């Protein structure tokens, strides 16, 4: 290694990658729990060691130079090698044997924690970390190795995964119990176009069910207001602000309390599937493998018992 290479540290490369990503020394410092002067000093030392300018100021931001852009893949390779080395050491020491990180989409919060607890009764030594996020957030956790497995509906396409189906996932159309449509024994799809709906963000499972329901019949999409969570949608429907397609697994308590009604509509309920998903190239640790096997073997019976034999369908 030449003299310049001996002066460069892995920490400098980590700071460099954070600065390139955020285009700001201040934001890079915040991300790495450093002070902005410390980031600036380390980037100056790195530039000096390389004998090249890495960043140019652009107002309050910094822009990577052509040299910096060329350096990025090598810095990423170094950072990934370090992560892999640490991972191997931790595995050799047995620290990861009992750890499993489970991400779940927001709809799965209605049964996911209970499913995890059932697993822990069988494997009390396991250390399970759970996180709940929207679909994009869960996919990002899998992609960035911040989760070992995920409980979700339709498996992602932008990363290669192995997916095991373990339960049916019914979607239903809900309304306030006082809504005029509750008086009808069967409702045609065309009768719904004039009514106001509440929907999740584009790309979510419930949004896809909503759009497919009307487009499959060649009908225009009805007027709709977008909301950022199923909980907010439920509250709005209970306030009689509109109709909504939601997972039957998210409304069991509200139905029992008489706060929500499931409408009898042609083409509903629509059955999807629940999957336990993990990156195809990922080597699961012992606890993660046991959790995967538990979900695929015991998950179907758990879901039937938890939600009832009809899975919430009318």
From TrEMBL:
The keyword Acyltransferase does not apply. It holds the Pfam family HTH_1. Transmembrane segments: none annotated. It comes from the Bacteria. GO terms for molecular function: DNA-binding transcription factor activity; transcription cis-regulatory region binding. Keywords: DNA-binding, Transcription, Transcription regulation. Residues 8-65 form the HTH lysR-type domain. PANTHER family: HTH-TYPE TRANSCRIPTIONAL ACTIVATOR CMPR, HTH-TYPE TRANSCRIPTIONAL REGULATOR. Belongs to the LysR transcriptional regulatory family. This is HTH-type transcriptional regulator CbbR.
